[in-house]
Design brief:
CATH architecture of chain A: Orthogonal Bundle
Number of helices of chain A: 7
Low-confidence stretches of chain A: none
Strand content of chain A: 5-15%
Largest sheet of chain A: 2 strands, antiparallel
Structural class of chain A: mainly alpha
CATH class of chain A: Mainly Alpha
Order of helices and strands of chain A: HHHHEEHHH
CATH superfamily of chain A: Winged helix-like DNA-binding domain superfamily/Winged helix DNA-binding domain
CATH topology of chain A: Arc Repressor Mutant, subunit A
Oligomer: homodimer
Radius of gyration of chain A: 20 Å
Number of domains of chain A: 1
Shape of chain A: elongated
Strand order of the largest sheet of chain A: 1-2
Largest interface: A-B, 61 and 61 residues
Number of strands of chain A: 2
Distance between the termini of chain A: 48 Å
Chain lengths: ~160, ~160
DNA sequence: AAATATACGTCAGTATTGTTGACATATTAC
DNA sequence: GTAATATGTCAACAATACTGACGTATATTT
């Protein structure tokens, strides 16, 4: 006799498949971040520092408030991490020319070097997975990931590369 | 003239694509976990409680050490959260019959109810993304996610559903 | 020019989740 | 009987997040 009847949720998809997706996200994310965390620990930085370094590197001249929105954390939470990175010269703040209230964030050479160290490992991991899976799988991966995130985050990707 | 020459990494993949993947992971995971966190906060539980509830629900009778390996945290970290869930009757511990040292973990009805509350939202999110993306995209998503995680985690999926 | 809004910083207190390290107990394996 | 294993527990600490309140500089509005 069959193992058991597949449970079909109201969406018409098998419950098992949906649960598997939850776990794919959990394990992929857990392992994806683990190595960078280890590197960071050596400099007594944490994952939060990594994220700041990453997004400042990605968007040179980003404002503090834009960074806050990306990270989805509070000003006070960011302040501790960002303050550290600025004091230790990983990040440089430049007063905005158009709007003098803004503090535009840039990586220093030191910051860029750390950023490279951290993401090299992650990029290699992605590259291996992409090569193994093949281009059409990558396209599917992108579609599903975009579908999972909120609308706000989604159009961050729509304006690029597509 | 063209925007700029695409940077090709040593893997033969465009650097931009690899960076985009990093961000897809970040935003999808961030938004995926956000709602459940909100529900949990109302019961003064956190994400750690969710993960324990989830994996015990997924693997009834799981041992403490197996759970520790899945979660990738220390015994002491788990103890606080698990102890709470046991004291408040979300999880039941049964002494192992084969090995009397083991404490096999099970959800109670109360625990199952909380589990359902938490994952209903997440399953709906996945279901919507899957439906939108289509079956072949889902297959690609699975391939890439499996490629991203470590080998240990990967064969957790190989024995099921495939 | 004065009032208001915005961008950013900072202080203080608290919760959650994770870590190390050390030690205790029950049970199984040799 | 001794050693290994599965689990629990105490204590101290660090990272990351939160809320709430207040301060300062600059822009915008009236």
């Amino acid at each position: 006799m069959p193992n058991s009847k597949p449970v079909i949720s109201s969406s018409g998809l098998r419950d098992e498949d949906l649960r598997q997706a939850i776990e794919l996200l959990f394990f992929a994310y857990r392992d994806f971040t683990a190595r960078a965390d280890a590197i960071l620990a050596k400099q007594s930085f944490g994952r939060a520092h990594h994220r700041v370094i990453y997004f400042v590197g990605r968007h040179p001249g980003i404002t503090v408030s834009a960074l806050l929105e990306i990270l989805g954390i509070t000003k006070q939470s960011l302040a501790r991490v960002l303050g550290q990175l600025v004091r230790e010269h990983y990040i440089l703040q430049k007063k905005g020319t158009q709007d003098g209230r803004q503090r535009l964030l840039h990586l220093t050479d030191k910051g860029r070097e750390l950023e490279r160290m951290l993401t090299t490992e992650q990029r290699a991991r992605i590259a291996a997975a992409y090569k193994d899976a093949g281009p059409s799988a990558v396209e599917g991966f992108r579609k599903v990931m975009l579908g999972i995130m909120n609308d706000d985050a989604r159009w961050r990707f729509k304006t690029r590369g597509d």
